[in-house]
Structure formats: C-alpha cells, structure tokens
User: What shape does this take?
Amino acid sequence: MKYFLLIVIVCLESFFCTASEKKLRILMVVNKFPRITETFILGQIKALIDASFDVTILSVWRDETDIVQQDLIEYGLLKKVTYIDFYEEKNQEELCSFINQGNFDLLYCQYDKIGRIFARLKEKEKITNKMVCCIRGGDLIKKIESDRDGFSTLFSHASFILPVNNYFKKILVSNGFSEKKIIVQHSAIDLSKFCFQKRSYNKKRLNVVSVNRLIKGKGVDLAVKAMIKICKKYKQVHYYVVGNGVLFKSLKKIITKARLEKRIHLMGWKSHEKVKQILNESHIFLLASIGTDGIPNAIMEASASGLPVVSTTYGGIPEIVQNGKSGLLVKPGKVRSLVKMIDYLIRNSRKWGNFGKRGREIVEKNFDIKRENKSLVDIFKLVIRGKSLRAYKKYCNCYEL
Assistant: This one.
C-alpha cells in the first residue's frame, strides 16, 4: 500500500510539473473590483498569480471608495480587470465574445448569482469553458426557492461548487444537489498580518468595534441600538463602526437622537492597515448579522487579533465562533440578547484572555489563507485536467491538505 501511495504521489508531482510549463488562464468573475471589503477575493487572486496562473478579472462595477490597497499596485491588478455589466441581457453578446476570445482554461465565479448566469450561457453553448463557482453570502435557502432551475443548471455545468462553510453545504445537499460536486472552501485571512494581543481592561475606557457594510443584513441598526443601551449604562464605553452603506444617514440620526455622537462613532471605510490598528485598540468585537454572511472575514480578523466576539447564530458564524469559548452568540434580530452578552463581557473581563486565545486557535486551524489558497490552486489544476472530486480527495489524503 505504501508503494502504491508513493507511485500516486510521484505521478501527481509529475502531472503538476507538466502543468506548470504552460501558464493556465483563469477568469475571475466578481461583482465589484477592486472592493475594499473583499480582501478574501484579493487574497485568492494573489495566490493564483503566485502559483503561475495567468489571471484576468471580469467585474460589473468599480467600487466607490478611493482607498487603494497596496497589493493592487504590487500585482498590477488594475491592468488585469475588464468591466462588463453581464447582469444586463443586452450585454451578453459582448460578454460571450470576451470570454471566447480570451481562451480561458477556467472561469471562477465568485457568487452563485454570477454562476447561474454563466451556467445558463454554457447550457445554451454560447461559452464552453470549464467553470467553478463559489457560494459566499446571502440567504441561500430563499435563493434556491426563487431559482431552483438556476441552481440545477449551475450544478449541471460547473465542475465544482465551493461553498464557504458547512452550513451552505448542508443546505445544498438537503435540497437534493449532488454532494459529489461540493467542496467546502473557506474564506480565510493572512494570519501573519494579525498579531495576537491579550486584552486587558483598566476601567477608564472600553472600546467595542464593528467592521461591516452598513446594510440591513449585517444587523448594524440592531448593533447600534444595543450599544446605545450599553453606552448609557457604562460611561467609559465607546463604540466604533467601520464601514459605509445605505444606512449611514439613518444610523447617524439614531445616534444623534440618543445624544451619543461623542461615544458612538461612524467612521466610514478605512484602509486595511487602519482597520488592524482599530482592532488592536479595541476590547470587544460586535457583529449582529441577520441575513448576509457566510463566514465573515471581519470576525476572523478580530479573533486572530485576540478580541472576544459577540455575534449571532446566523449562517456559518458558529463555525468560527464557539459559543462560550471564543465568544458569545445570540439568535439573530435580538437587541436585548445582544445587550445582555455585551454587558456580560464588560462585567467579566477576566474571560477575555481565554476567549481571545481560543478564537486565534480556531482561525489558525481552519481559516489560514495559505492552506486554503493552496487547496484552491490544487482544485483548479484538477478541474482543468478533468479530474473528479474523488481524485481531489485522494490527492488531499496523500498530501494531508
């Protein structure tokens, strides 16, 4: 058996060496690029380029922010992006022409909505490229209910479906979609950029922080309402909300009405370096998601930094936050429960150290970008060579990915 495994490994190594002689062309398809909140996508692009793939980016829109991440410049990514609004049916001819002329070995669709559009084009034989689709956020159950045919087409024409958590995988399988095409591929972070810091509390000031888009699904309005109650009870507490979105003005009105403008701070978008600084200066991380998250990268970054987390049981969040061990979870939409958990952590600061330590351990074990990106690169190589999930699992067992 050992000799057989050695032969398999040698063959695989030979296989990948041969593949590396030719740069394989990947089309990364996204909604917005560059987008400051989607560091996970940027990390995947960098990993593919580092693995000698030739990456082109197709996006519908540009992001509104003027903040430019250093990696965009270092990797020359702004020169690799093309903009086509493929959600508009009138642009499909331009889209298909672009794809067919690009001679791409693989299309990588970053969201299921994008994947369903491209799968339908494959069904009509307007494009013939191999395709992989990542399923990230949103209410997956509702999306399947509203477009089951679209998901069936996606599973028929994609080589693999990559949900970012086990929660999404269970939903897909329970709805009758083939488990043979599903590989859980976590979003992940670069742990080298987040230094663990044990939290302590000097009773003079306590900072709670949230990092998220200001949209309904993130539950930010609920978080602000909870923090108004906390700030009124504890005069040393400040709340920092990093992010922007459609709720900015309404949240500002709520804060002004509560007369807490000097203690609840809507900070807008900040550079990744500034976000890390804010995390390091905080004591508790809060994310009150009610309907958009797969596994939020913001929680990964907070946990990697040593922050105890208060969040909800929505989606894949329980896969990164162990309730009572690395943070505290409540049912989505419960302001009173959020207040109770935040209050508990304020009164029990001695628990912060253990919560933070366990949070870091979870991220190191399951959400390390180096490990996840290596897995993604290997998946792509197998897909391009026409290999199955069974072949991928054998490869994982041999190399202990």
User: Anything to note?
Assistant: Residues 2-20 form the longest helix (19 residues). The chain has 16 helices and twelve strands. Residues 2-188+368-399 form a domain with the Rossmann fold fold (CATH 3.40.50.2000).
